[in-house]
Design goal:
This protein is an alpha/beta fold. The protein has 23 helices and six strands. Helices cover about 55% and strands about 5% of the residues. The N and C termini lie far apart (about 65 Å).
């Protein structure tokens, strides 16, 4: 039995509950590897960065008041707000395609997906600001597709080009929005090919890409040379393809993933239809090309399952359309189970991060804690406090010169060392190593005073990220002392060690990695 006349309030309650839960959770979990790395984007404003376009940095800059309010909550606040806006767009799309009930179902699925609801909807990632632009672009497309009066509306077309351009300024694969929409136009709306508004809209998107192009011209297209090296294998790798599918199964939420592909099969078998045939074709066009591309890449190269995450968003409407043809049901049981699964995963993960007395990775003394995901989100704040006390004692005893710097050879744990250790102390962090390892830290080096002859330094090596400090830094210092060991304790057990090295007397200055 249908329990409500309007689904607007339930959607707003869904959004509000999500916001409250995420705000309560944000300060409980320290920032992860990617999150603290993207903090470096805020430290050095630029038109583009080594790994990604600038939008995630702009988002953090806005919500942290230009870095003045730097905390787990402030950095994640942009992602939480973006998720709320995206959920609202999903509801509005569903309402436009069919009804408020379809939009409500799609909004539940969006929230139940671990990728859209939590990974991109909570953590600081380029995907986070992209989601409202992605879903907003779908909403504009739906208007163009379903409302004849909008086809000749310059404002709608220009807005579409701008929104897709802004999606690409988050991650360049936002251009898949044009790929999918272009395919739909070829299949269903070929008359639009004579509409000048289409080409002006695409041109607006290209204008948005100018900052990315300008930066890469200045740096010899280093972003694309880096990413192209990740997809250069020529032999078929079944393992990486299986990992991609299994990753999508997990990231989408096993229940949501199953519902999506069952609905695709049922739609192909004509078990259900939308009020207009073009709706289903549009949804498939906005999803399948992107999925097929990343599945093809996964056949030859290792991939990450969140790369294809946005491709599932249009398919949520297929699931919603399938359920809409059934008996009116405010909150279907299987949707409740999907939400419950997310809740269980979040609670279990939070408890493990905060209280587990053991790490879930390597127990070897040489790599203790390696591959344990909970260590990315815990122990860093305490490390910063302990290290600050250690440095003060070393300086007081004359064991280290004042003005010592902290070193890193890789973007992880460099991001954590920057945010939780160096930043609170006002200690410069200097990257020494290869550009492919340091990423944005090579650019931060340009903003900071380089090592000076005779200067002392520290290196902190987490046991889960083993490093031979003598090999990495020994050529630049007269003496590398044996490390002191700091413990990360949790729930009464030791889950990781931090080895703190003192490097004395800089004798050689590393060459800058970029001009």
């Amino acid at each position: 039995m249908l329990l409500v006349k309007s689904y607007t309030k339930p959607v707003l309650y869904l959004i509000g509950i999500n916001i409250i839960i995420k705000l309560l959770l944000a300060p409980l979990l320290e920032l992860g590897n990617d999150e603290v790395y993207y903090w470096t984007y805020l430290l050095r404003p630029d038109w583009n960065y080594f790994d990604h376009p600038p939008m995630v940095g702009w988002m953090m800059r806005f919500f942290t008041f230009n870095g003045f309010w730097a905390s787990e909550i402030s950095l994640r606040l942009g992602s939480i707000v973006a998720s709320a806006l995206s959920t609202w767009f999903i509801f509005k799309i569903g309402k436009l395609l069919s009804s408020e009930r379809l939009g409500w179902y799609a909004a539940i699925l969006y929230s139940a997906s671990i990728y859209t609801g939590f990974i991109a909807g909570f953590f600081v990632l380029p995907d986070s600001p992209q989601m409202p632009f992605w879903t907003g672009a779908l909403y504009i497309m739906a208007h163009l597709m379903l409302r004849k009066s909008d086809e000749n509306n310059w404002g709608i077309w220009l807005l579409l080009g701008l929104v897709i351009g802004l999606a690409a300024l988050c991650k360049v694969h936002g251009l898949f929005l044009w790929v999918g929409f272009g395919l739909f136009i070829l299949l269903q709306k070929r008359q639009w090919l004579s509409n000048p508004r289409l080409y002006v809209s695409a041109f607006i998107t290209l204008l948005c890409l100018v900052p990315i192009l300008y930066w890469n011209i200045n740096y010899d297209f280093i972003t694309y040379r880096f990413h192209s090296e990740r997809v250069t294998n020529t032999g078929v790798q079944i393992d990486s393809f299986i990992q991609e599918i299994v990753g999508e199964f997990a990231y989408q939420n096993p229940i949501v993933f199953s519902l999506v592909w069952i609905s695709v099969i049922f739609f192909a078998m004509r078990k259900f239809r939308f009020r207009q045939n073009r709706i289903g074709i549009w949804l498939l066009c906005m999803s399948l090309p992107m999925l097929l591309v990343f599945w093809g890449v996964a056949l030859f190269n290792p991939t990450l399952p969140h790369w294809s995450g946005p491709a599932y968003i249009p398919l949520y409407f297929l699931v919603a359309g399938w359920f809409e043809i059934g008996k009116p049901n405010f909150f279907p049981l299987v949707f409740k189970l999907a939400i419950a699964m997310v809740a269980v995963v979040i609670v279990a993960a939070t408890v493990a991060v905060k209280f587990s007395p053991v790490n879930f990775g390597s127990k070897s003394p040489n790599s203790y804690g390696e591959y344990c995901p909970t260590l990315d989100l815990s122990g860093w704040n305490k490390l910063g406090e302990n290290f600050k006390a250690m440095v003060a004692e070393d300086v007081a005893k004359g064991e280290i010169k004042e003005g010592a710097v902290l070193l890193t050879n890789k973007w992880f744990p460099g991001g954590h060392l920057e945010f939780y250790v160096a930043r609170p102390m006002g200690m410069p962090l200097i990257g020494i190593g290869e550009l492919q390892d340091l990423h944005q830290f090579a650019w931060l080096n340009k903003e900071r005073s380089p090592l000076q002859i005779g200067q002392d330094a520290y290196a902190i090596v987490p046991s889960n990220l083993p490093l031979n400090v003598v090999d990495a830094y020994g050529a630049y210092f007269t003496t590398v002392e044996k490390p002191e060991k700091l413990l990360q304790q949790r729930g009464g057990g030791v889950v990781r060690y931090f080895y703190v090295y003192k490097l004395k007397g800089c004798k050689r200055i590393p060459k800058p990695l970029i001009n």
